[in-house]
Amino acid sequence: MCGIVGYTGKDQAAPILLDGLQKLEYRGYDSAGLAVRDGKALAEVVKATGKLYHLADKTDQGRALKGNCGIGHTRWATHGDPSTVNAHPHVSGNCTGSGSGKVESDVAGVHNGIIENFAELKEKLLRHGYAFYSDTDTEVVVKLVDYYYKKYKIGPVDAITRTMVRVRGSYALALMFKDYPDEIFAARKDSPLIIGTAEDASFLASDVPAILKYTRSVYYIDNLQVARVSPGQVKFYDLNGDEVTLNQTEITWDAAAAEKGGFEHFMLKEIHEQPAAVRDTLNSLVKNGKIDLAETGLTDDMIRSLTQIDIVACGSAWHVGMAAQYVIEELAQLPVRVELASEFRYRNLPLSESTLVIVISQSGETADSLAALRVARERGAKTLAVVNVIGSTIAREADHVLYTLAGPEIAVATTKAYSAQLIAMDLLAVQMAFVRGTVSADAYAHDLEELSLIPEKIRRILEDKERLQWFASKIANAHDIFFIGRGLDYAISLEGSLKMKEISYIHSEAYAAGELKHGTISLIENNTLVIGVLTQSRLYEKTVSNMMECKSRGAYLMGLTTNGNFSVEDSVNFTVYIPKTDEHFVASLAVVPLQLLGYYTSVSRGLDVDKPRNLAKSVTVE
Ligand code: G6P
Description:
Shape: globular
Helix content: 25-40%
Distance between the termini: 11 Å
Bound molecules: 6-O-phosphono-alpha-D-glucopyranose
Strand order of the largest sheet: 6-3-2-4-1-11-10-12-16
Strand content: 15-25%
Number of strands: 28
Largest sheet: 9 strands, antiparallel
């Protein structure tokens, strides 16, 4: 989704803004723009559609734009097509043509989010003589700020708070006012925004990687707050315009973690960071040979009082929930529902205080997951967030937080955050089982031992990539790929299929193997690739039978199974083996070859692996 950056300080702003935008490219975008001011001079706006280098070319890598204070934006189109005129920044005055050039305006701004009542606000502003040059909701907000600013002759902070009271929806806004050189004003509701300060400079960004090179001291501006940012200083205000104090956080992420470090793509680098991501997450939850949930605030009494678990998430995080469902149900004997956050938020599910709603989210900012969390809290359930980004909105609003330690994830297709979430959920399942007395002390020790070996087993899988690389080049022209499995193998199939389709653009679906005969098998033709996930001994033969039914209709088969299951080779065309582990925890291993298969297929097809079309890393609008 859209990315915002801002800079005010002693250095030339535009190159810093471009550098920040480049670090936010992973969020997904279709156009970009900058507004820079030079002292008292008006803002100069430059915009370009397509990749960021077009904007960099237009501005001589930013050098052509003079000025030490500016805002920048990558836009993921919601209202209005991805054209130059719709690209941000937007201005309060009129704009001709592409909207680039010197602008005679009092306010210029960038926005991430959606203003739901923009049509009604636009009508109001039209009645007051404003004219609009774009189709965006952002232009409406910028003009509304300008309207209050002039009508009441109030300062920027009050003009912004009045605007916030009128708009519905979500926003992170960064605004510059002609009369306030060197200052940027920001506001936020339900869309991420951080503010970093250094000695003589301040930075704004949608996410940490954009400013990590310059500072590690950041503020997480709260919902419905306004910030007044000047070089090296920031003040915060609530909706009444009263000043409030926020604590500064020190980012501990290593700046190198947000660079490719010799790998061709972020996705490949992040696939290789999985042993560390899993180990770090595991070590943060296991102390002296026991699982310790003290930092989450979940007590044994709370765990014993639970009668129901609801896991709510989007995308791959939802797939983690699907896998965890089987593990929690089997080990802790608790009923588990797994819900898509976008569905959960609009359902009237009865919840009670004996329900624990677990929201899984890498970014901690996904709009639907955040809304689902709020619904769960309103209905009286206990809430636990499993989140990777410290200080994110979901982490701040949940009753309890369990942080995964995957570090910054840049590739749109998640890999290491998924794996960190999975191990966190497995540890939670084992601890719930132990506390509830559904596993013995011996079984508990065995489970912990098995989980502690997962990082090393992932590392072993990563040592043997060549066969998958070869197979990926062979299937790169496939039209359809079906992933099938039962039980936990179905959950693994869901993630394998998503990894494949989102970065290779090959149509792919995951099916519970037993469902094939209810429709999907009619899609099997000569050479259709069917990938069977076969890690659960109880269900293994049944899935193999389903694969044979596909083979009889012409399918080409790949089997993914554990070492030792060599009989698979007699039935399928290509076999991938993973090391043995306790079957409850096998998803952590089985997913890795499927990630690699998706990755190498995308590379074979010459696609933009890290930034697949139309997708965004962090989906901050509904
Ligand atoms: C996007 C990302 C996925 C992610 C999903 C949920 O679709 O591309 O990788 O699984 O959002 O994001 P979250 O940050 O809530 O885990």
